[in-house]
Write a structure and sequence with these properties.
The complex is a heterodimer of chains A (246) and B (259). Chain A has 246 residues and is α/β, with parallel strands linked by helices. Chain A is built from ten helices and nine strands. In chain A, strand 8 and strand 9 form a beta hairpin. Chain A starts with a strand and ends with a helix. Chain B has 259 residues and is mainly α. Helix content of chain B is 75%, strand content 0%. In chain B, helix 4 runs parallel beside helix 8 and helix 8 runs antiparallel to helix 10. The longest helix of chain B has 32 residues. Chain B is globular, with a radius of gyration of 19 Å. The chains are: A alpha/beta (246), B mainly alpha (259). At the A-B interface, helix 2 and helix 5 of A face helix 2, helix 6, helix 9 and helix 11 of B.
C-alpha cells in the first residue's frame, strides 16, 4: 500500500480543565446562579497546539519534527496517528499506522512477559498468528530468556524497557510515528535499539520522528518540519542548527 | 461517517481483541491468588448462606422460596453495580491506550461489560446448586433467560458508555455513583420482591434497576415475565441507547483530550 499523510489547514485546540471546571459541582452552581459565577467557573482555557498546518507527506518520505518543548511535536504525532481529531481542517491518512509514543501502552505488570507481548501486540493490531512468530524474535532481541515467563513487575526498569521497545517495533506498518525514545537502557541496548530502528525505518513507507537530537534527525530524515507555538514550517537541512541549537 | 457511529462499528469488528483484553484483565487481577476468580463464587456463596438464613427468618419467608430469589438478586446486583460503578472511570483509567493508539474508544466500555459477564459466569454454578438444593425445577419459562440477559447486557453497555463519557469530563461522577450504588441496592428488589412492599410495591416498576433484576429473576424462578417488564427494558434500551449515541457522537473526538 502506498502510504500518504495529508494535512489541510489542520487546527488542534484542546481545553485545559482544572478541578474547578472538571467538577460537576461547578457546573451545577453555574446553572443555579445564572451568570454570576459564569466568568469564573465557565472559563475554560483553550490551548491551540497546532495552527493551520498544511503539508503532504508521500510514500518514501522521512520527516523530522523539531522544535522546543511544548512546540506541538507530540500533538502533531498524535494527530497524524488519528488519536486527536482536528477541530478544523482535514487529515487524509492512507496505510496502517504504528506509533512509538509512550512505551508500554497496555502493559500489565502482573502478567508474564509473554502475556504482555500478546497484550501489547494485539492492541497494536497484530494478528494472533503473527504474534506467535514475533514472540520468538522478540525473545531473541530482548535477551530476556526465561524471564519472559515471569511477571513483568519482577523486571528491572531496563529489562521492561527492552520488552516494551521490542514489542513497539515488532510491527511492520506503512506509517511509523516515533516520539524521541533513544537514550534508554545501557550502552549495549542503545546500540541494538538503534540498529533495530534503522531496519524498521527502511521497511516503512512514511517515517515521522520527533526529536531534540539534531544528529539523529539528520541521519534518519530527509525532510524537516520546524514547529513553533503550533505553527509548522518546513525548513532545509542546514537551517536546523541555527533554529534549535546543537 | 459520524465519529460516534464509525467508532462503534470499528469496535464491533474487533471482538477477538475485546475478549482477549477482558480475559487478560481478569488473569492479571487474580494472578497471585490460589482460588483466583473462584473468590467471586465463594463471596457470593457466603452472602447467600449468611443473609439467606437470617433474612428468611426475619421476613418470615419460606427458605425454599427466599434463598433462590435472594441468590439471583445478589448475583445480578453484583454484576450490574460493578459495571455501573466502574464505568464512570472506564475512559480515564484507559487514558494511556486512548492517548497513544488509534483504537476505537467504545472498545473500553465493551471490555468492561464483558469482563463482568465473565465474572457473572463464575456465579452461575452457585445458582444451579442453590436451585437444586432448594428443589426448584426449571420449566419452559426458564428459556426466557436468554432474551432477558441480552436486554440487560445491552442496557448496561449504553449505561457504561454514557457514564464513561460523562465521567471522563466530570471527575466527581465517579465518587457520586460509588456513593449512591449501595443506597440503590436497598431501594431495588435485590433482597426482596416488589410485592413484599404493601404500599410502595406497585411503584417499583419505575425503578429501572428493578426491571433489570426482575426480567432475569422471573424466568429463573420459572415464572412468566409480565409484558410491562419487557416493555420497560426495551424502552430503556431505545431511549437510553439513543441518548447515549447522541452524546457519544458529539463528544467522541473530545474524549482523547479529556483523559
Amino acid at each position: 500500500m502506498t502510504a500518504l499523510l495529508q494535512f489541510e489547514n489542520v487546527t488542534i485546540q484542546y481545553p485545559i480543565y482544572n478541578s474547578r471546571n472538571m467538577s460537576l459541582r461547578n457546573q451545577l452552581v453555574r446553572i443555579s446562579t445564572g451568570g454570576r459565577i459564569e466568568n469564573d467557573a465557565g472559563h475554560i482555557q483553550l490551548v491551540t497546539a497546532l495552527r493551520n498546518a498544511s503539508f503532504t507527506i508521500n510514500h518514501g518520505d522521512s520527516v523530522a519534527l523539531i522544535g522546543h518543548n511544548g512546540a506541538g511535536k507530540s500533538t502533531l504525532l498524535r494527530t497524524m496517528a488519528g488519536v486527536y481529531t482536528p477541530a478544523l481542517g482535514t487529515v487524509v491518512r492512507q496505510g496502517r499506522v504504528a506509533t512509538v509514543l509512550e512505551l508500554g501502552t497496555g502493559m500489565d505488570p502482573e502478567l508474564s512477559g509473554y502475556e504482555n507481548i500478546t497484550r501489547m501486540s494485539m492492541l497494536l493490531g497484530v494478528s494472533k498468528q503473527q504474534i506467535a512468530e514475533n514472540a520468538l524474535e522478540i525473545a531473541a532481541f530482548t535477551q530476556l530468556g526465561d524471564f519472559l515467563a515471569l511477571p513483568v513487575r519482577t523486571y528491572s526498569s531496563g529489562m521492561a524497557t527492552r520488552l516494551m521497545f521490542a514489542v513497539a517495533t515488532s510491527t511492520k506498518p506503512d506509517i511509523l510515528l516515533v516520539d524521541e525514545m533513544f537514550g534508554t537502557g545501557d550502552a549495549e541496548f542503545q546500540h541494538q535499539a538503534k540498529k533495530r530502528m534503522e531496519d524498521l525505518i527502511r521497511s516503512v513507507g512514511i517515517f515521522v520522528f520527533a526529536s531534540h537530537n539534531n544528529d539523529l534527525v539528520k541521519t534518519y530524515c530527509k525532510r524537516f518540519f520546524f514547529l513553533e507555538h503550533g505553527v509548522v514550517k518546513e525548513i532545509a537541512k542546514d537551517e536546523i542548527d541555527g533554529l534549535v541549537g546543537g | 461517517m459520524s465519529p460516534g457511529l464509525s467508532d462503534i462499528i470499528r469496535t464491533f469488528k474487533m471482538p477477538g481483541l475485546i475478549l482477549y483484553m477482558a480475559w487478560s484483565d481478569i488473569r492479571a487481577r487474580y494472578k497471585r491468588s490460589i482460588l483466583g476468580p473462584l473468590w467471586i463464587t465463594l463471596s457470593t456463596a457466603i452472602g447467600v448462606v449468611g443473609l439467606g438464613f437470617i433474612w428468611s427468618e426475619l421476613f418470615h419467608m419460606d427458605r425454599a422460596t427466599f434463598i433462590p430469589m435472594l441468590t439471583i438478586g445478589l448475583i445480578l446486583w453484583q454484576f450490574m453495580s460493578a459495571c455501573i460503578v466502574e464505568s464512570t472511570s472506564v475512559f480515564s483509567k484507559q487514558g494511556n491506550i486512548i492517548r497513544n493508539l488509534n483504537l476505537p474508544i467504545a472498545l473500553h466500555p465493551a471490555q468492561l461489560v464483558l469482563r463482568h459477564i465473565i465474572n457473572l459466569g463464575h456465579n452461575i454454578p452457585l445458582f444451579i446448586i442453590v436451585a437444586l438444593i432448594m428443589g426448584r425445577t426449571f420449566n419452559a419459562y426458564t428459556f426466557m433467560i436468554v432474551p432477558a440477559l441480552v436486554l440487560v447486557i445491552a442496557n448496561l453497555y449504553w449505561i457504561s458508555m454514557m457514564l464513561g463519557t460523562l465521567g471522563a469530563r466530570f471527575r466527581d461522577l465517579e465518587y457520586l455513583v460509588s456513593m449512591i450504588m449501595p443506597l440503590l441496592m436497598f431501594l431495588s428488589p435485590v433482597m426482596y420482591r416488589a410485592n413484599a412492599l404493601p404500599k410502595l410495591g406497585k411503584y417499583m416498576w419505575m425503578n429501572p434497576l428493578a426491571d433489570m433484576i426482575e426480567i432475569v429473576r422471573y424466568p429463573l424462578l420459572g415464572e412468566a415475565t409480565p409484558a410491562l417488564t419487557y416493555a420497560i427494558n426495551i424502552g430503556m434500551l431505545i431511549v437510553g441507547g439513543s441518548l447515549t449515541y447522541l452524546l457519544f457522537n458529539a463528544k467522541r473526538n473530545r474524549i482523547a483530550f479529556w483523559v
